[in-house]
Specification:
about 70 residues; little secondary structure; two-stranded parallel sheet
């Protein structure tokens, strides 16, 4: 989790999550990334872990850097 969105984060190519705020819903997610700011929630509330898990289960792993694991090549 970070205040700012990162386009590359540790182990992103293995499906690790990156939760962020700051952009107020104006930055589309890449891979398993989610803006969890309360202003992006439908009822302006904190996201539950179940909501985050449900969102992430629908996201594909995105490889956006040169650290491509052999099994994904």
């Amino acid at each position: 989790m970070s205040h700012y969105a990162m386009r590359v984060w540790n182990r992103s190519h293995f499906g690790s999550w990156q939760l962020y705020g700051h952009s107020h819903g104006n930055l589309p997610p890449i891979g398993k990334q989610m803006d969890v700011g309360v202003d992006t929630h439908p009822i302006l509330a904190p996201y539950t872990s179940a909501e985050v898990s449900r969102f992430m289960s629908q996201r594909e792993i995105s490889v956006v850097d040169h650290h491509v694991p052999k099994e994904l090549k």
